């Protein structure tokens, strides 16, 4: 095990990690006929063969146990017009608005997103105060839209650079 420098300030570390621009996802699953969702940006592709993806969920998040119980989850990659959807599932909106879910591959998914990736739980690894859940991809849906981005504590939109 590597030694960790405990002198690094938590806020400095969070700010540095937050400067990495990411897409925004909402992880959804269903347990006992109740739909659960959580905004997350810790998502990545792991393998093409087999098709595997990873999400990282904090041990104190309610979604942590929901994924274990359901043994499956969907990753809803949000489009640039879904900022309020992201805010709702991260608890940033005071009044809870009604969200309508569709079903795809037996999982609740959000409509009007950029993409959806459905997964069966493949493996999990406890790493620090998070669990990395590896999902075996069971389905993919993709629309032609722009992604919702997040960096330095703000939502952002994609802009093409001139060459």
From TrEMBL:
Pfam families: Flavin_Reduct
All copies of domain Flavin reductase like, residue ranges: 17-157
SUPFAM superfamilies: FMN-binding split barrel (SSF50475)
Keywords attached to this entry: Oxidoreductase
Domain of life: Bacteria
Name of the protein described by the UniProt record: Flavin reductase (DIM6/NTAB) family NADH-FMN oxidoreductase RutF
Organism: Sporosarcina psychrophila (Bacillus psychrophilus)
